[in-house]
Amino acid sequence: MAVAAPPPSALAEHIHHAPKSFINRYIFTLDHKIIGLQYMIVGSLFFIISGLLAELIRVQLMNSDGRFLSPEHFNELYSVHGSSMVWLVIIPLATGGFGNFVMPLMIGARDVAFPWLNAASFWMFPPAGLILFSSFLVGAPDAGWTEYPPVSLQGPPGTSMWCIAIFLIGISSTLTGINFLVTMLKMRAPGMTFTRMPLFVWAQLATAVLNMVATTALAAALLALFLERTFGIPFYDPSHGGSPVMWQHMFWFYSHPAVYIMILPAFGVISEVLPTFARKPIFGYKMIAFSSIAIALLGFMVWAHHMFTSGMTPWLVLPFMILTFIIAIPTGIKIFSWVATLWGGNIRYTTAMLFAMGFIATFTFGGVTGVFLAAVPADFQEHGTYFVVAHIHYVLFGGSVLGLLAGAYYWFPKMSGRMLNEFWGHVHFWVTFIAFNVTFLPMHWIGLLGMPRRVPVYDPQFTDWNRVASIGSFFLVIGMAIFFINVIWSIKHGKRAGPNPWGARTLEWMTSSPPPYYNFVKVPGVLHMPYEFDQPLPYVGLEPPEQVVSGFKAPMPAGHH
Amino acid sequence: MAQQARPRQGLGPGFWPVTVLLAVITAVCDYYVVVTPVTAFLREAASPADQTDELFKFLTFFGVIVMVYTVGYLVYFGIVWRKKTSDPEDTLGIQVHGNFQLELWWTILPTILVIAIGWISVKDWAGIFYAQGGQLAVEAIGYQFGWEFRYPGLANPVADELHLPLGVPTTIHISSRDVIHGFWTPEVRLKQDAVPGLVTTIHITPTEVGTYRIVCSEYCGARHGYMVGKLIIEPKETFTAFLDKQKYAQAHAPKGPSGLPPGVNLASGNASAGQTLFAQKCSACHSLGAFSQKLVGPGLGKIFADSDHPKLVDGAAATPEDAAGIINSGYTGDMGTMPNAKTNGLSNDDIANLVVYLEGVSKGQ
Lengths: 561, 365
What we know:
Chain A is mostly helical. Chain A has 16 helices and 2 strands.
């Protein structure tokens, strides 16, 4: 990634130049773009590790009698897989990765509000991962990513390391939340009113609020668990007067909003990719923006729908069930608006667009099964089974991960200055989309018929569907391998992207690829909404590198028709 | 000037035919949803399973509509409104920003649907929580790693098998001795966590004779996956006979676990076979450390000469016969609960092998 040459204009003297040394520029950097890339590189490594952990799980479940791994090892695998996918992969990639790289560019800022804080957030991330993964050396946490006490109080020593790792990543995301919120509230380019913000920024705004408010509850819960494990202070152990259900309330008060922390940025990506490749304004901009906020607020009031069977006061399930149903409404509005955006479009099938459309299909399915889970009597059958495993993967893989992959294909040219190979991108999409459904669709079925989650052995009647799921998951690995090879190859050998290869309209495309250290020579003024394809560019005062404006009109690269 | 995709007229090619086609697909799918009995896939052992299945069908019915139309339009728009190779590069889509009426409808319709689902769910929930019960009350107690059940009139619990009489409204009180377990009977479509320090209650009325699964649905420790019980629904007379038989057996059971169980010949024990068995059957709960090195149960490494050892049997040091007795009968007491040999799948020879192995370990062999 070459540093762009300083612009020729007289403004050059007002520009902060990038640090000269490699270490200051690319390692201990304060540049939001490099920090974003650092998040992505580290997050991708963690993704590969925890994905392979999942493959070991699937190998074990090829047979019903658990002949591959000991129960102890199996329990550790799925616990670390779940924890790291949530805290070390999706949340850091969605906020720290894409949020960091894209959001300041989109609002025409030169950096986030607090660059030092941003760097501090990042540097808590790799240690958190190292702590979590090295817990395998002493006995990794084994009670799932939810670590319900009292059983987590008996867990191996690694459970305490889990507490520390998640605590650390929690601080990191709280600080990122504060940082991003201030950035979006105070540093938007002149003229970028709230209703002119790109929808990815709206999504990051809602996410930042969730990160800032919810994570504190998790921190308190983790601290109490750590103190109980280490010093025996009885917060949760009922035999000493603690309350095991209290952990569940505090954990889910964070972890339900965390579901939206993971999905809202993906919603944002989809809302950018669809208008760009359909060449038309997003359908119902205000309703999509509003529904992000509605989801974020409602997201705080539904946590106990994870606890319908946990023995809380019986009538308390009713408000949580009703509020959960209500959340389906703004989510539905988003989905219908996306589908309607395609109507009347001039759709270009780039890989990013395929992932965005695949996202709509799989996420809608996850949303429908979410309503199944919210209906309390049905949940009495579904809770704690493979139905839940299937649901969570439809929203987190079929939702968040497909959304982030759409974002990766969409913004890779901006990040690297080069295009990803579109042929292999298409192969990646189809392999992943099909393998994903083969892996996770059967799990709904075996869950309903009686297979609980978190088991290394199961009733032999479920063997066939488990084998189907396992074989599907092996193809997921192939799909992701294609992606990572494509990325590594394209960084060096990809076609030059130019500033705006997709003909997009948001501000990040109005500067060179990769953007210069200072993002924009002059802070641009914003005249109207970002998705008006039949209007002239809505920005004034841009002093873009030469190619930007012409790049917008330039033909799409070959292979996108 | 960039050119628009197509002149703005109507809803685009084939919109109404496709909409009708999707309606047909929905109708066919939902027809099968309605006519297929859930019992074709999973038996109904007791009410409220029938009621839950109806709710499930209702949810699936509307889920099908949402999925078919969303994915149907997604694919159809994606095909019809794709960029043709003949379209110039700067072709745009139709520049619409929204449609108030449409947005209003897709807010109102899901709201109505959600109210309907909510209403039925609340009704069903009330049916489950306020169901008639209490003609028979039993207790289900989870422990690492099994279930035991207490019945009225029986002094001691019965391990692993919950017998219930057909047609009798029954209240099940669920609790746990150690960590959280989940009491799940898939064929009754009911699940309730067994939480230590808390008693939760469900009401069921058995409707079909048979043997069903009781699955632990909440992770409870290393051998969570192996924690299964049986729900046995039988005619009233058989149930009464079962209770009588248990009463008789409990009244005539030998006092305490001491003493060599009949059929176990310690002299024939094989230490190396015992070692293998210990790794398979015992090591999840017992270490080979000192008695105080508790995993779930105590450490057994010096069991026959352990200064940490509290009163195992009547204050006396343990003998090989005592150990064999405990392995055979199981243990319930202040240290927790250990399933008996039958539950653990141990034969008389296995017991002998284990005891001989533990003797060897105690002597440092």
